[in-house]
Amino acid sequence: MICHFSGTGNSMWVAQTVSARFRDSRLTDMADAVVSGNSLNFSLTEDERLGFVFPVHSWGIPWIVRRFIEKMSVSDYDNQLIYCILTCGDDCGLTNRMLQKLFRRKGWQCRHIYSVQMPNTYVVFPGFDADPAELEQKKKREAVGTLDKIMAAIESDTPIDCYLQKGQQFLKSRIIYPLFCRFAMSSKPFRTTDKCIGCGICVKNCPTHNIRLENGRPVWANNCTQCLSCLHRCPQTAIEYGKQSVGKGRYYYGKRKE
Ligand SMILES: Cc1cc2nc3c(=O)[nH]c(=O)nc-3n(C[C@H](O)[C@H](O)[C@H](O)COP(=O)(O)O)c2cc1C
Questions:
Q1: Chain segment 8-27, per-residue pLDDT in tens
Q2: Could you tell me which CATH class the domain 2-180 is placed in?
Q3: Which of 71, 95, 139, 193 lies at a C-alpha separation of 20 to 30 Å from 52?
Q4: Ligand 1 pocket, residue 10 CB under 6 Å
Q5: Does the domain at residues 184-241 carry the CATH identifier 3.30.1330.40?
Q6: Is 8 in the pocket of ligand 1 (CB under 6 A)?
């Protein structure tokens, strides 16, 4: 089973690539599962792997993923292989340690935590922007080889060193990440400009079903994960996050739900 979460498609590409190679078609959308309130009890066959694929948010685990992992149970867990593949712009911080702590509390063991560098999607803080086109293409090209190595390591159950981590990890993951989770989840700064045509593509593509149309304009509720799917996938570039996103690049991988 592959449990996935993706705002702008990078992690979805990883999940689908892994699913094709491992012939593991059981894809579970973590955001959908949490928001729908459905049962989070799963079962695994004896030789089935349990995978988690999701983006790094502020050098940590997106809250929706954390909630899914905390609440999920696997009725017949018997040391089946667990793996995590994180996608990131350039630095995962201590997300691996956070995951290990979550798994330890559940009595699970995970020896495979990896990251794949993908185009950056965080554009709503000063100094952060989407990657230039050339870097975007380079990251996507190199991700193919990285993911290939990761899948081989998981298949042979031979852990490798493939995790992007830069300096100041404590500051980023232990200080900024908790502040981000507490103060940066607000959807209040989301707004539409005159370019909005009320097409509803933001509504269809929001992983937490947090947007509805009112009088032909999107309205955001309070279940935002800051994945920025709405902002990046808007075909009119009509969605901004306060003033922070104005003039910044837009990016998404793959298709959008039209
Ligand atoms: C709210 C937010 C926070 C992010 N924080 C980080 C980060 O701490 N480190 C990093 O390398 N990339 C960060 N990124 C970039 C994403 O992790 C990266 O672009 C990821 O591949 C996006 O995956 P997705 O398209 O599946 O949503 C962040 C992106 C967002 C939207």
A1: 999 999 999 999 999 988 99
A2: alpha beta
A3: 139
A4: yes
A5: no
A6: yes
